[in-house]
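Input sequence (200 aa), recorded before submission:
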Amino acid sequence: MNTTATARPPLSLAQRLADPSEKTLAVLLLAPAAVMLLLIVVYPIARLIFNSFFDLRLSGRKGPRFVGLENYLLVFQDIDFWNAAGNTVLITLITVPGALVVGLGLAMLANLPFRRQWPVRLALLPTSAGLYTDADVVKAVPWFKDAANVVVAGRSRPLSRDYGQVSDVIRTTTSAVLARTKTAEEGVNEIGSRLGRVMR
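Predicted structure, token format:
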């Protein structure tokens, strides 16, 4: 007896979403993380590489000018770049392990039975104000209701459309003072003058 297998018709997209296979479910679960990585990691890095081939000045009036590899040549010949790179590596080697040790130490101290725990607990305060009024959280951590005023009274830095230019003025002038190409007095005067033009 000859039997012929009947091929199942392909499922539509709606059917696959309504009853997803393991592969489809994996794609659906990973898609939001992939989109976020593209937005906050891949795009900024790609944009940074693209901008590195141009002469861009946040505080200038002129548009971007293509300079090719000139920025890289200037950077690799700059002693301040190598000093900054060395400092960055050194700070990373110190702060990353240090933050892990300090964070673990604070977490352990917060759970030890001693009388003066409030300094340690203040260092571990969460920043979401809703946690301080959540009934379950307050029941588990009663002192959160007393700390609520501290969190609510906190204020973030003011938003400004000129923030990028202000930051650029302070950064570049401070770097020049630290590199001793400008005196501290010249740096203060330059920051005041440039900020006056930016904030007009």
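Checked by second reader. The beta strands are 54-55, 65-66.
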